[in-house]
Amino acid sequence: MRTTVGIIGAGPAGLLLARLLHRTGIDCVVLEGRTRAYVERRQRAGMLEQGTVDVLRACGAGARLDAEGLIHQGIELRFERERHHIDFPGLTGGRTVTIYAQTEIVKDLVALQLDDGPPLLFEAEAIAVERPGSASPVVRFVRGGREQMLVCDWVVGCDGGHGVARAAFPAGTGRTYAHEYPYSWLGILADVPPSCEELVYARGAGGFALHSMRSPSVSRLYLQVPNGTEAGDWPDERVWDELAARFAVDGDWRLERGPVTDKSVTPMRSWVHEPMRHGRLFLAGDAAHIVPPTGAKGLNLAVSDVRLLARGFAALHRHGSTELLDHYSESALQRVWQATRFSYDMTRMLHAQPDGDAFDRRMQLARLRRITASRSAAAELAANYTGLPLPDDVAGPAESPW
Hints:
Layout: E1 2-8, H1 12-24, E2 28-31, H2 36-41, E3 47-48, H3 50-58, H4 63-68, E4 70-72, E5 74-79, E6 82-87, H5 88-92, E7 97-99, H6 102-116, E8 120-121, E9 124-130, E10 138-143, E11 146-157, H7 164-167, E12 175-190, E13 199-204, E14 207-215, E15 218-225, H8 236-247, E16 260-274, E17 277-278, E18 281-283, E19 289-290, H9 298-319, H10 323-326, H11 328-350, H12 358-373, H13 375-386
Parallel strand pairs: 1-2, 1-11, 2-8, 5-13, 11-18
Antiparallel strand pairs: 3-7, 4-7, 5-6, 9-10, 10-11, 12-15, 12-16, 13-14, 14-15, 16-19, 17-18
Helix pairs in contact: 1-6, 1-9, 9-11, 12-13
């Protein structure tokens, strides 16, 4: 097989890139090692920045998003039994965020791809990227028990932190910066309407808690727990009791409880791989960077990577220019590091530090007081949360909608 752009991974990054390339007239092939059913049921984050919503609409994947997505005007910070609303539109000139599960984005993009897009091959496991520094890199993959070869002009790895794309970087050509947090998140899905209209970030006596939602009838909630915690260590009643304690405020608000349908533990970590390109091999999304979910940046960073790549390939296709592709890594990393910093700051501000003391707790409280008392501090949080713009130097061709 031969194609212009070989894409490894059918998560949101790979599928969205394929869709954008298709609309530009660039041929590509998407390889996904898992089944379609597996890909479409993976539970992941669902908070979309304004720019992510805009690009999904622009590529034709906005119908269900507009019908079912929940637009949020802000978030609520809770601490010291107080409630503080952060007004996103008022602080950012009208920007909002939208709750729409990543699972649903994948379903929408898969349907579009299979309907009129370029090849999307499920159960096609990439096992190696060869000759990434040449003019014709090769992706070797196994499908139906037979090893096959995809010859490409370019390869984009959207296959996560353990995929073959990043492993194809020759020794000494890249560096990974990593930080492990001393706690994890216990997350639950529950068949109960959300107890609030917006996301609630709470700093309680027992640690951090987050109240989110997947739909008007399904709640998504998280608790800070020690590393090494097993989901089975927390019976449902214990989870609800601890959530209620951490969300507690002075007033008549209460946490609604319901049947728990899913429970899992997520370690908290940050890492960034530099550069995000070697030869004709690019990395995007989780293949290049991971952030803790506190700032809701993971999916949105993957989308911003893809927007940059799509503009670069469009410029090459339409104008014969490789300038945007040549600057992809540098430009993407500007936004990646800002999102990593924001996620780190939010995490440190809201979580109980296992080795912290009274001074650390007072510093956390001081940061929260600053945000809730200062418009400029609140505006900085709102600007980062709703999504920083792409770098000005990669605005792309004027006709590009991304």
